[in-house]
Amino acid sequence: MATLADVARRAGVSQATASRIINGSAKPVTERLRVRVLAAVEELQYVPNAHAQSLARSQRSAIGVIVHDVSDPYFAEITRGLQRVATEHGRLVIICNSYRHPERELEYVELLRAQQAAAIILAGSGYHDAQFTRSLNSKLQVYERTGGRVTVIGRHQHASDAVMPANESGGYLLGAELFRLGHREIGVIAGPRLLTTTTDRLAGLRRAARDYSRPLRHVAYADFDRDGGAAAAASLLAQRPQLTAIAALNDSMAIGALAYLRSAKIEVPAQISVIGFDDMPIARDVTPALTTVRLPLAEIGARAMTMALDDSLRDRPPRIEEIGCEIVRRESTAPPP
Amino acid sequence: MATLADVARRAGVSQATASRIINGSAKPVTERLRVRVLAAVEELQYVPNAHAQSLARSQRSAIGVIVHDVSDPYFAEITRGLQRVATEHGRLVIICNSYRHPERELEYVELLRAQQAAAIILAGSGYHDAQFTRSLNSKLQVYERTGGRVTVIGRHQHASDAVMPANESGGYLLGAELFRLGHREIGVIAGPRLLTTTTDRLAGLRRAARDYSRPLRHVAYADFDRDGGAAAAASLLAQRPQLTAIAALNDSMAIGALAYLRSAKIEVPAQISVIGFDDMPIARDVTPALTTVRLPLAEIGARAMTMALDDSLRDRPPRIEEIGCEIVRRESTAPPP
DNA sequence: TCAACCTGGGAAAGGGCTTTCTTCAGCTAC
DNA sequence: GTAGCTGAAGAAAGCCCTTTCCCAGGTTGA
C-alpha cells in the first residue's frame, strides 16, 4: 500500500508539501510542485489511510446508526433518509443491527465510541428495562462527555436530541378510526411488551377506547413482524371469534394478520377490518390495500441525521422534534358487518 | 477521551503492560497488575481508539459492502445474510449505497480502500459500460494488489471470487413457466438496459422463447422498482392489449404491475398472468400471491461474506459459486383465458 | 559462587498522517 | 549593502496504539 512518504519521495518533495497539496490545504504551493505531486498520486494510485488521517486530525467524521434490523422495511426506510442526508454532507454511516438484543446495543455504543464516531443515532425502540436503560444512559453520557453527539428516534428515556414520532397520538388515531366506523370489540396485535413503541402506541389506543367508551379487552403480544402478526391474529380469533376489527401496531404484523385471514377464508373488510401502523411502502400493494397510520419514515431518518450533524446544537439543551402522523384510509377497513 | 496513557498512569504501570492486559496478550502479567489496570479501565471508561489500533496493528478488519440501495428489499435480504456472517466473525460491515450511480461505486471503492477494509463485496448488478468496467476493474486490482479481497455477487465482469445467482436459467424458468401454461404472447417488464442483471435474465427468457418457438416482441425497459413496473405494465398493455401474461424481471416491478392491473380492473390471473423474479419476502403477501423465481437472497449474502472472510482462498484462483433458483408457483399465474 | 536462564515489566520504535514551527531564498526599502 | 520582510518548502512533533527489544531481579544448576 503506497504511503504519503512514497508519494513525497517520488515527487521529490517533503511529506508536508505532499499532504498540503493532496488535502487542498490553505497554505499556498507552487503550481509546479502541485502537478508533480498529483502525478505521483496518480501513478502510485495513492489513497490516504483514513485511520491515520483520523488519528492525526483527531477529528471525527463517521456517524454510527444503531437499528434493530436494516432489512426490516421500517428501518430500511428510516435508514434511507439517514443515508441521504449523510451522503449530502460527505459523511460515512456505520450501520449496526442490534436485532433487538439490548446487550448488543450496549456493545455497539462502545464500538462506535472506539471508532471515533462523530455521532450515534439510536433508531430502534426503547426497552422497558430500567437496568438496561441506566447502563445505556451512562454509556451514552460518557460518549457525549467526550464530544460525541447522540440523537435518538422515538425514545424518551434519553436526555439527548430526539426525533419523536407521535406514537401515542398515532395509536389514538388508530383506535378512533375503528370506533368511529362503529366497531365495538376490537382485537389488538401488539408488539413485544418490552418495547416502548408498543406501549406508547397501545396507550394512545387505550385513550381512544376511553374517549369512545369502548372496552379494549383483547390484546395479543407478538413479535413485531409478519409471522408474529399472523400468529397473533389466529390466537385472537380463536379466543374471540366475534371480533369485527383487528388493530395491528405495525404494518408488518397487519400484513401477517391479512395473510392469516386470507388462509382462514375470512373476508377483509367485509367480515373483519384490519388496520396497521407506519405506512411502509408495501402497505398500498397488499390486498386489500392497508388502512394505516402514516409515519414519514424516511423524513424521520433525514431529520435525525440533520440534528446529529448540526454542530450549532452543541452544548445547548437537547432539542426534541415531534413528527406527526395521519391516518391513510385504504381498503382494509369498513363498518362492522 | 481517555487514552491508554491515562489508564497506564492511573494504574501505575507502563503503556505496554496496560495494552497487554487489555488485549489479553500472550505475555504473562501478574494478577495484581491485571486487577489494577482493569480497575483503571473501568473508572476511566476507557475504550481503545480503533483507528490507532488499526494503525498500530496494520491489520484490516472491516468489510465494505457496496449495494445499490439497502432499503430495497432485494438488497435488504442480501445484506441480512451478509451481516449475519460478519457478526458471527466479529467483523464490522460498512454499507455503501451507490443508488445505481457507477461513479459513486468507484468512489466507494476508493473510500473502502482508504478505510483499510479487509474485503469489498460488490452486491449490485454490473453495468454494460466498458469504460466504467475497466476503471472499476483497475481500481479493484489495485485494491487486491495491496492485500484486499474482492467478492462480487452476480457480476461476471470481474475476475474475483463470485457468488453467481443463476440469472440466465432463472429467466429461462420464468419464460418456460408461462409458455408451458399456454401463453403465446407475453409482455416483458425489464429493468434498465444498462444492468447485466436485466440482460442476463432476459437472455434466459429469450432462450425459453426459442425453445418453445414463441415470439418475444414486447419488452418494456423501466426502473427496477415498483413504479417502474406499474408504468411499464401500462405502456405494454396500451401497446398490445391482447397480452395474456406479463413477466417482470424482478418482484418489485411485478408488484407494480399488479398495482396497475388492479387499478385498471384487469383480473389476475383470470385475464392476465403475472410472474416475478427474486421471491422477496413480500411476494407471498400481495394478492394474488406472486408466482416468481426464487433466489435465496439471504443465503447469497451469507455465502459472499463467507468467501470474503475465508483467508485460505488468498492467492488461489478466484472461486465461483453458482446459486440455483427455482420456480415458486402461487396465485398470479394461470393458463390464458 | 557464578554462569546461564527465566520472567515480568518498561522503554522506545514504529504505523501513516497533519500541522506547527523553522528555515531559507528572494525581495523591498532605506 | 544590509536590515527586514514575505512566501514557499521542509523538519519534526504529535495523534494513540502495539510490539519488539532490552533490562533487572530472581532461579536454577554445576
UniProtKB/TrEMBL annotation, chains A, B:
Short name of any one Pfam family annotated for the protein: LacI
UniProt domain HTH lacI-type: residue ranges: 2-57
Presence of keyword DNA-binding: yes
Domain HTH cro/C1-type: residue ranges: 3-33
PROSITE patterns: HTH_CROC1, HTH_LACI_1, HTH_LACI_2
Keywords: DNA-binding, Transcription, Transcription regulation
Gene3D superfamilies: 3.40.50.2300, lambda repressor-like DNA-binding domains (1.10.260.40)
InterPro entries named among the record's database cross-references: Cro/C1-type_HTH, HTH_LacI, LacI/GalR-like_sensor, Lambda_DNA-bd_dom_sf, Peripla_BP_I
Origin: domain of life: Bacteria
Listed GO MF terms: DNA-binding transcription factor activity; transcription cis-regulatory region binding
Record protein name field: LacI family transcriptional regulator
Lineage: Bacteria, Bacillati, Actinomycetota, Actinomycetes, Micromonosporales
